[in-house]
Design goal:
With about 250 residues, the chain is an alpha+beta fold. Helices cover about 30% and strands about 20% of the residues.
Length: about 250
């Protein structure tokens, strides 16, 4: 499979309605693929968009309602679509390795402070996700293991019982209190928490995924079996999902 030639990138093309208030660029900017400037504030999760450094830039609130943490469903889906670049499968353009390392370290540290030394962290290669942190079932407090992963795209973070989201009830046992806590950790680290339910929705983009390749191979093998007279009915093939795009081998 051809390796991704892109070396990175925060999204540079988001166009959202409801922009209001104007501020100076508060932190070092990054330039997106359409030459717009995009900055994500780690503390307020506000997106600042403009055409160059030092400009008076409009600020967009994230849409979180008072007293809630996780972003609204329509905004999460918009972010999943926005960061999908079919030319960059493994990591976005202008990928900031140092920033990803810092975010992953902050996530790991927060989980270790909550769950103790049973946390195990590791980085990934040839995947669209940066790395993951696992916690044993004995340490989580809800009787099931935990896996938290950071994507190379959009600073997306998700959580489930294991690294395999295809298992039945992959988020069973995750309490509302834990989800709220993890979302707060993500906000402080400059990440966006994406509940697994959104990542398990059908992928609607054009980027080839590993699952697409597996499905093609299965179809070839199935056709070969039919030619050999083997008409056993196989398992129904699932469609690609957003987790295949942002948390999978490429």
């Amino acid at each position: 499979m051809e390796r991704n030639s892109c070396t990175s990138s925060p999204d540079g093309g988001a166009r959202y309605a409801g922009l209001r208030s104007r501020v100076r660029l508060p932190v070092p900017h990054v330039r997106g693929r359409d030459d717009r400037v995009v900055v994500i504030s780690a503390l307020t999760q506000q997106q600042v968009v403009g055409s160059g450094p030092g400009r008076d830039l409009p600020v967009r609130k994230t849409g979180r309602e008072k007293g809630t943490r996780v972003l609204p469903a329509d905004q999460i889906r918009a972010l999943l679509r926005e960061f999908d670049d079919p030319h960059c499968r493994e990591r976005p353009r202008n990928f900031d390795l140092d920033a990803s390392a810092r975010r992953f370290a902050e996530l790991t540290r927060a989980l270790e402070e909550r769950f103790g030394p049973s946390c195990k962290s590791g980085l990934n290669q040839d995947t669209s996700d940066y790395g993951g942190i696992s916690v044993s079932a004995e340490a989580t407090g809800f009787g099931r293991p935990l896996w938290v992963g950071l994507s190379n795209f959009g600073c997306f973070v998700t959580a489930r019982r294991t690294s395999d989201w295809s298992e039945p009830d992959p988020t069973e046992g995750l309490t509302e209190e834990f989800v709220t806590w993890l979302d707060g950790v993500c906000t402080a680290a400059g990440c966006t928490f994406v509940p697994l339910e959104f990542l398990l929705e059908s992928y609607e983009g054009s980027t080839p995924t590993l699952h697409d390749g597996d499905r093609f191979l299965a179809e070839v093998l199935s056709a070969s079996a039919e030619d050999d007279g083997d008409d056993e009915e196989g398992e129904q093939e699932r469609p690609s999902v957003w987790a295949d795009r942002y948390f999978q081998w490429v």
